[in-house]
Amino acid sequence: MLNVLIVDDEKYIRNELRYFLEKHEDINICGECSEGEEAMELVKELNPHIVFLDIELQDMNGLLVARKILDDVNPPYIVFATAYDDYALQGFEIDAVDYIVKPFIEERIEKTLDRLRNRIELKEVDGRKTKDKDNIKLNKLCLTKNNKLYLVDIWEIKFIQSQNNEIIVHTKRGTYGCNYTLKELEDRFKENNLIRTHKSYIVNIDFIDEIIPWFNYTYKIKLKGEETEIPVSRNYLKKFKRRLSI
């Protein structure tokens, strides 16, 4: 059973979303609220698996609420539900799982739920419990290709890329899909040789061939056997230089 928290300042919107979600036997609406501050408290109290979150709340911006929720240990999945589709890019930049636009379309919500179920199922296959703070540490990652699951050793991964709202994992054996966010991967493998260099990239240090100085004191990275040049943005520059003793 997946516990869902609905956050929207319009009651009729909450009721509409509840109506669509309660059609699914594996969905339990564990709570709802209209304000950001209350939402953050309910997340701590109820431990939902998923939060459907409006962006334009009366007391604060939903993007800020999401950032604070995602800063917690083992946070819930965030799905933005809003009338403003121009927020989509910002939503995915902070690792929201999905973004649905009002007025809601039932088929679109079902697609979102399928994505969430797949994400949670893959977590369990990969040896992780969604609400267990003491997650089992594995040096393998469960990836997808042609509707099949593959366990790939971490040392085989060259780099991970976020492209068109999908996560692509480039390995020595080829490319795979992945149902984790970059934030989840960054946190999980921070003790391995995978390092975040950009909002769209994670790189395996072992495959770095060249580090090329770029404008504004940033860098570009060339990997062994890869033509793609991967940026090191200013937001990740300090950590990157410290990790590589530059």
UniProtKB/TrEMBL annotation:
Keywords: Phosphoprotein. It holds the Pfam family LytTR. The keyword Cell wall biogenesis/degradation does not apply. It comes from the Bacteria. CDD domains: REC_LytTR_AlgR-like. One of its GO terms (molecular function) is phosphorelay response regulator activity. Residues 141-246 form the HTH LytTR-type domain. Residues 3-117 form the Response regulatory domain. The modification 4-aspartylphosphate is found at residue 54. SMART domains: LytTR, REC. May play the central regulatory role in sporulation. It may be an element of the effector pathway responsible for the activation of sporulation genes in response to nutritional stress. Spo0A may act in concert with spo0H (a sigma factor) to control the expression of some genes that are critical to the sporulation process. This is Stage 0 sporulation protein A homolog.
